[in-house]
Each structure stands twice: as C-alpha cells, then as structure tokens.
Amino acid sequence: MYRIVRHSFAIAAAFCLMPFAGGPAIGQVLKGEAAYGSWHDDKPGVRRLLRPEDLPPIAKPTYALAQVVPIPTGAVPQVPAGFSVQLVTSALRKPRVIRVAPNGDIFVADTMFNTVHVLRVSAGSAKPTRDEIFASGLKQPFGIEFYPLGPHPQWVYIANSDGVVRFRYKNGDLKAAGQPEQIVAGIPTTHHYARDIAFSADGKRLFFSVGSGSNAAQDMFPEPHLTMHPAPHLVNGLTEWSTLEPLGAAWDTEELRAMVLSFDPDGKDMQIVATGLRNCEGMTVQPATGQLWCIVNERDELGDNTPFEYATHVIPGAFYGWPWYYNGGHEDPRHAGARPDLKDKVTLPDVLMQAHSAPLQMTFYQGDNFPSEYKGTAFAAMHGSWNRGKRTGYKVVRLLFDADGKPTGEYEDFMTGFVLSDSQVWGRPVGVAVAKDGALLVTEDGNGTIWRVTHGNAVR
C-alpha cells in the first residue's frame, strides 16, 4: 500500500532526522567559497552562484563513500513551503531515467537490471494502477524518447550502453510490440556507460551522449596513431588529427567519447555535435529556445572543490575542455603543456555547480501545477559526492533563467533531506520528469523509490 503524505508532515519528519539547525536562509544566495558548503547548508530555497574565478587551487583528493541505508521510518524529502511530496512506488530496484509518454504513462529505466518499466497512473494521482515491464534483455538502458514528437508517437527509442534501439509503439502500449530494431551500434561501453538521447525541436536529429572512458584520459596515447582512425582518414600525429577532426576531439580509447553525437531518426548520418564533455549523462531541449542542454559530471581527484560540475546549452562545434582543460581555460595538471593550442578555445559552461555533486538528469518545467515563476526553469537531480570530504549533492535543484530564457547562473535547492549524516544517506536522486498533470517526478536509486511533487495542499 502506498502511503501519501502532506508537505507539513514531510518537513516535520525530515527535520526530526537531521542533527543540525540554522544554516543559510531561504532565498539567500551563497557565492564563492560560501557556495562550496556541504549537505548541512542544504534546504529548499537556498541558492548558489559559482563563477570560474571562484575555483580554488588544486588540492589533495578526499574519498568519502556514502553508506546507503534503508529509509528511516517517516522519512520523506523536504520541498519548499506550499508543495506536497507523495511516494509513487518503492517496488522498482534501481530506477534511473524517467520519461513521460504523450498519453501520461511513465517510462522508467531500471538500468542495472536491463529493463524498462511502464507505470500507469490516474490523472492527479500518485499511486500506479499498472506496473509492467515494457522491455527486457536490454543493455544498461538509460535514455528514453518518443518519436515522432507530438501526441501520437510511433516509436520508443531507448539508449543502451552500446547504442540505440527502438520499438514500435502507440499510445497506451504496456508491452513492446515485437523485437527491438538496432539503429545505432558499436558504441564503447567501458567505464561511463549511461547514454542519454533527445530529439531536436524539429524532430530531424537524434542527439546521443557518450561519456568518457576514464577519469582524465591519463592512459591515452600522447598523439594519435595511424591505427587509431580507419581509412580513408589515416592520420599521422596530432597536427594532422587536428585538421581532420572536430576541435578538441580525443583519440585512442577515447575516440568518439566525451561528446554528443547526432543522427537522423533512422540512426544514419552520424555527426559530432560538441566535444570535451566528460560525462553528459543528461540531455534535454529547452522549449523556449530549442537549444540542446547537457548536464555534466566533471573529473575527480583534483580536490574537494575542483572542478565545478555544470549544466550548459550545447553549441555545435564547441569544445568544453576534457581532458586537457576544465571550467574554461583551467589546465588539468595531469596534461600540463599537452594542448596549448586549445587553451583559448574552451567554451565556458552556463551554470557551474558544487564540485562532485554528480548531476545526472535535467528537465525544463512547462507544466501548470507549479507557480508561474517555475515555468521555463529547469530541475536537475544530483546523485551525490564520493570524492569530497564534505558530502554534497543528494538532492534536486532548480536552475534559474531570466524572462528571455537565458540562464542566470544561479541554482536553488528544491528537494533535499536524503542525507542522514556525514556518512549515511537514504536516497540518491537520478531522474526528473514532468508528469502530464504538471507534477514533478523524481527517481532515486539508493532505495529504488519514485516521488511525486505537486503544488497545493490537495492529496489524492
């Protein structure tokens, strides 16, 4: 039986589990060093603003793995005043990406168990009336999209770790009709395996993100070799590689990685959109501008607060730094002097975030359930830190935009309360999506739950 709770109880229960009081005020903007902070500073309404000049010097790395514990009795996430939190389900194992079909059905990737589920809920409700396995036997499925865009899709696209498959689909299908059609294949699967997909606003291009095969490419050959690129583009050295490949493209085991690719809807005509994105695990298209956005996990082992994670609109042909640079023209000392030609060609991301927060997914809010100031902003799920002495992440934040759809650089805590202590957490947010009725849906894979956030006091 699914227990539904009001926001007032959610706040009370969560606070009684927290061994601290005070901290930043709601609406306060933490800047510079104050924005580094930890989970002790998190609460709905607290904002942060980080700039490239706020980066601290490189320091010795810290390793602090969190122990995921069962959900304490009465524990629910904290959300801002006026919002309500409801538990949708705790029946899934490791729910990650969550996407909503045009008819309102909820598709969830259970990545580690190679399945995609479909949850059916009644309008305005949290409790699923159906939970079916739409497809199984997949390969670490993550991103999910419906095509063509609009109210009547004919396909469900699923990003596996090694490519993209699609299934025939019509609204209301709870089981895949037939076998998957492989339309993109041959993608390397080692290390970062989560692949996201998104269609361009006009539906003509399928974007596909591929994370790096390592933390900082320290085992990559110093220069490209002939064997690293098939004919007819045999290359001999970095100079020739740079004239043939997109700006900042890596090679060896990192070839076609740390970048966003695009294809036509049939998986043909591959193009490289942008490079140097270490691990873009989440993609979405901004409705106001039609721009593709990536949310990126940056590299580790440069210190507790370096480099910053980020979200950014993706400029075609841009290079975002990995593995040689980060957060603009800051050189990674592990590649000192290797690519001076790229230093002034690194594109600076739009929104910088606390280091090691591990942001995984983002979505723009276009619903009508939340107050008007939420429309056009974006929600992002942070999985949480491990390479940091003071734990951070483990929450959902809201990225702020101005009236013209441009990011302000600030982001605001929206859903917190998953951390119990410096060493224990009960939830690790991954996926965010907007339900057909305007509610916000959030997955976390620590205890395998899905949560529904609505505005107002009505509980159904």
Low-confidence stretches: 1-21
List the total number of helices: 2
Query: What fraction of the residues are assigned to beta strands by DSSP?
Result: 25-35%
> Total strand count, please?
30
The average pLDDT score comes to 92
CATH class: Mainly Beta
Shape by Cα distribution: globular
User: Kindly, what is the distance between the CA atoms of the first and last residues, rounded to a whole number of angstroms?
Assistant: 14 Å
Number of structural units classed as domains: 1
Q: How would a textbook summarize the main sheet?
A: 6 strands, mixed
Q: Structural class, judged by helices and strands?
A: mainly beta
Please compute the radius of gyration using only Cα atoms.
21 Å
- The CATH topology corresponds to Neuraminidase
Assign a percent range to the helix content.
under 10%
CATH architecture: 6 Propeller
Task: Explain this structure.
The chain has 460 residues and is mainly beta. The protein has one domain (7-455): Neuraminidase (6 Propeller), CATH 2.120.10.30. Helix content is 4%, strand content 33%. The chain has helices spanning 7-16, 238-244; strands spanning 29-31, 47-49, 67-68, 83-89, 95-100, 106-110, 115-121, 128-135, 144-147, 155-160, 163-168, 177-184, 197-199, 206-210, 259-263, 271-275, 280-285, 292-296, 309-313, 325-326, 330-331, 351-353, 359-364, 378-382, 395-401, 407-415, 424-425, 429-434, 440-444, 449-455. The strands form 8 sheets. Strands 1-2-26-25-24-23 form a 6-stranded mixed β-sheet, with no helix packed on it. The chain has a 4-stranded antiparallel β-sheet with strand order 4-30-29-28. The chain has a 4-stranded antiparallel β-sheet with strand order 5-6-7-8, with no helix packed on it. Strand 5 and strand 6 (106-110) form a beta hairpin. The longest helix is centred in the N-terminal third of the chain and has 10 residues, at 7-16. The protein is globular. The model is unreliable at 1-21 (pLDDT under 50).
